[in-house]
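Course assignment 3, question 2. Fill in each field.
Student: A.L.
Task: Predict the tertiary structure for the chain below.
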Amino acid sequence: MKPAYWDRATKELSLRDPILAKIINKNFTGMLTKSPDPFLTLLHSIIGQQLSIKAANSIENKLKDLCNLSPNSILKKSNMNLRECGLSNMKIQYIKEISYMFVNGELNFNNINQLNDEEIIDKLTKIKGIGLWTAHMYLIFHLNRPDVLPVGDAGIIRSIKFSYNKNSKKDFNFNEFKKMWSPWCTVASWYLWRNIDNTDVSY
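Answer field:
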């Protein structure tokens, strides 16, 4: 289902940013969708850290063949089983820790989801294996919060360089883009992803 703010956001962004307006018009039929499972969003994000979409999808498909993507199922698998799926030792540690926290009640998504963006980022990044990028993916893809700009995302950086004719990250200031796009940075981010990859990004 399309986020309630989507149409308003695309109209306002198009009026403010002529480059983004062209990207929106080119990809007008697409939209952000909400991932229904908060645990899976974090799992997908951890798997995808510092990997291409293709590599992350390959690991996730192997993991799906191994077990249900649930905390209990993951905890029952040995580290060797998980390594055979392509997960690094560090990511196995992160995934098992989050699975354990979910099972024993330390990780309560109902409570987390009631917080504002900064509070959620603060809460999640205290968990080992969850950094700012992963917290941003959670805000965007599970909660569909409207004003999230994942400044550490390689795809966003690449798309800005490509779309706005920048040679490197040093040639632009994220704060200037955030000022232009806010309060709809999430929508701008989605279109930037779509502009370099004609598939719907999801976590």
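Instructor remarks: Residues 89-103 form the longest helix (15 residues). The CA atoms of residues 162 and 196 lie 8 Å apart.
Grade: pending
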